[in-house]
Write a structure and sequence with these properties.
Layout: H1 2-29, H2 37-41, H3 43-58, H4 73-92, H5 114-147, H6 163-175, H7 180-197, H8 200-221
Helix pairs in contact: 1-3, 1-5, 3-5, 4-7, 4-8, 5-6, 5-8, 6-7, 7-8
């Protein structure tokens, strides 16, 4: 039981710990002295690299993630559509009352060298499209939504519905993000997709589509606050 819990919690906890480290450093140095904005951006590839490594090490424990589910094309089309819808909501639900704090964004233009900028963009896309969706869906849609139903969460079927678990994961998923209202909308839609498909792989796909669309939008418009 403990191993099943920690293999699903550890990648997410590590990711959040790095966010805390970055916030702490920003507070301590006040973005002055020897620390430039570019220095903080270097934390991102380190963060996603370590989280990716933990996911690889723990992968054999994620038996609920079956990418063969993506062969069910109707579900896959729904996943892609929901991912696109979440992207649309994300760039439009930007009202002041729907945000928490200020977003630092991720602006690669802080690097003067073109090669470094390209490497940081690649790292950001890799994290947003391939690492974060896997890490978050394993935590939210595999672990927490089932744990909120029964502490012995491995005995709870993937996609089992309860009002309490739906509300808990929707609200907390939203509060994890700067655009918390858009985050809640995304959490509710990912939960709906889980109930509809009973597939973590489909949720990962939808999450990846949303993040890829957002990444491409940011690169085209240079609205770095969304990153």
């Amino acid at each position: 039981m403990q191993k099943n819990l920690w293999t699903r919690v550890l990648p997410f906890a590590l990711y959040m710990a790095f966010i805390g480290i970055e916030d702490g450093l920003r507070y301590l140095v006040g973005q002055s002295g020897d620390f430039s904005e570019a220095s903080f951006l270097f934390l991102y590839p380190v963060k996603v690299g370590l989280v990716a490594a933990v996911l690889v090490v723990c992968w054999r424990h994620y038996r609920e993630v079956r990418f063969s589910d993506l062969l069910q094309w109707r579900h896959t089309v729904l996943s892609i559509a929901i991912g696109g819808g979440i992207f649309w909501l994300w760039i439009h639900m930007t009202w002041d009352f729907a945000t928490l704090g200020e977003s630092q964004g991720f602006n690669p233009n802080f690097f003067a060298e073109e090669g470094m900028r390209e490497m940081m963009v690649i790292a950001r896309l890799f994290g947003a499209v391939l690492v974060v969706p896997v890490m978050e869906e394993i935590f939210w849609r595999s672990f927490l939504i089932r744990y909120a139903i029964d502490g012995n969460f491995m005995q709870v079927a993937i996609g089992r519905f309860s009002v309490f678990s739906f509300l808990v994961t929707t609200v907390l998923f939203g509060l994890e993000h700067h655009l918390f209202l858009a985050g809640m909308a995304a959490g509710a839609l990912f939960n709906f997709l889980l109930y509809r498909t009973r597939s973590i792989a489909q949720c990962i796909l939808s999450h990846s589509v949303a993040n890829l669309a957002l990444g491409l939008y940011v690169l085209r418009t240079e609205q770095w606050q969304f990153w």
